[in-house]
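Support request, please re-run this one:
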Amino acid sequence: MLAINPYKRFITILLLCFVPFIALRFGLLTVYYDDFHELSYSQIAYAFLHGLRFDASTISLFIGLPLLLTLLPFGWARTKFWQGFCLWTIFTSILFLTFILIADFIYFGFVRRHIGPEIHLITEDANLMIDIAITDHGFSLLAFVIVALILAKLWKTIFHKPVRSEHKPIIRYSVIALVSVCLVIAGRGGFQYKPVRATDAFSTGSAAQGYLTLNGAFAATHAFRSSAPKNIQFMDDDEALAILKNNTLLDKEQTLDNQRPLLRSSPISTDKKPNIVFLLIESFDAIHFDYLRKLDQLEPFGSTPVLDEMAKNGITFTNFFATGQRSMDGLAATLAGIPTLPGQPYIGKGLEQNRLSFLGSLAKTQGYETYFMQTSNRGSFHIDLGS
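Re-run finished. Output below.
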């Protein structure tokens, strides 16, 4: 049996890993075209291109290490046992990712988005999920198993061959070092400050383009790594609605729908559209605000003269409800009007997969041009989504 070139095999397997991701993305666009019909050809092309970033991150996480181990130059690493162990681990991982992609593809048809934090609920009731899969998708599961067995036979025939020895180990060591660095970069999704997250798929501001960019395996993996939901005892709906009306409605305002209590009519004229500057200051307590310090009869620091002047000549709210105890909670409520409930995801942990009305998006519907500037590192808190 002829020895196989380990480098050619490495590249071939790596390219094969992208096939199910690209195929399912194309299937998503074709089968659920109504969800993506608003996208132009250039936006679709960009979604496919940008999607490779998320595909590579997922592949690096699941397949990068065993694929790298097939290149080890040691004698024992060229044995049939070691190579077989690594190759079957790779094949099983590809099969697992493909199964997740297909499951997410079917799930998308029901909820019109990729799988999110609800994956915790699915895993907590595995017996029910298995029963549903067998009952509703039994033939599809059988077809998947048959195709997997056929592919396993082809996989063994093509890749399970003796590995050609390396006459110059230094070359193999150099390749392994280079590949290791590339896998780390791919796993992080690039050279940016923070590792890539599902939020980055929606950086263009289009939900449809974000869904096409993202893949189900990436979404499921990152959602599963988030905190599990908590059991919550909610307030009675009627009581909550009464409290909300008593504390939020202005004079002459009326709610339009009890199911959407914050949707209300206002007699205020909207003919004039003034310029709006929205300042969002992170980690800034009221105790540091001289205007408020004076109201509490505290010695001012002299550090907020501009804000003091704005408060003096404007309207200052000194009694309000906080949406959470952390910045991420406040950002979701401020930019999207969504308070982060206990156990629920925030922006960057799955919330962005929902079709939200961000502050900037709402302004654009009213004819405004929006600009979002931040002094922190680009992508910090993912607040660029609000533009």
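The chain has three domains: 6-225, 237-273, 277-340+357-386. The radius of gyration is 27 Å.
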